[in-house]
Amino acid sequence: MPRRKPRPTGPPPRPVRESQSYEAGPDGDWNVRRLSGSGSGRTYRCPGCEQELPATVPHVVAWPVDGDAADRRHWHTACWGARSRRRPGGG
Q1: CB 21 within 8 A of CB 51
Q2: Which residue among 1, 41, 49, 75 sits deepest, i.e. has the most Cβ atoms within 10 Å of its Cβ?
């Protein structure tokens, strides 16, 4: 009798849908990646509003074009879109 492949246990991993783009703005040139959310369990702090941002929520990761991985910041999508109209920290 042929052997069967073992069935995977637990839920399948959720794919992270990403799209990276380039955005030029009054605050500089940015690499921008839009994430649909993942089950990584991490929590970030949005630099726009200083509130917690769970990785499971769709959000934006942005960093200066001339920056590196250490310069990446996770933003709420709305905070990223409003960054030119408000001060950092939600003020």
Answers
A1: no
A2: 75
SS3 track for the chain: CCCCCCCCCCCCCCCCCEEEEEEEECCEEEEEEEECCCCCCCEEECCCCCCEEECCCCEEEEEECCCCHHHCEEEEHHHHHCCCCCCCCCC
- Tens of pLDDT along the chain (91 residues) come to 667 766 666 555 544 456 789 999 888 999 999 998 887 789 999 999 999 999 999 999 999 999 988 999 999 999 999 988 866 555 5
Q: Where are the domains of the chain?
A: 18-81
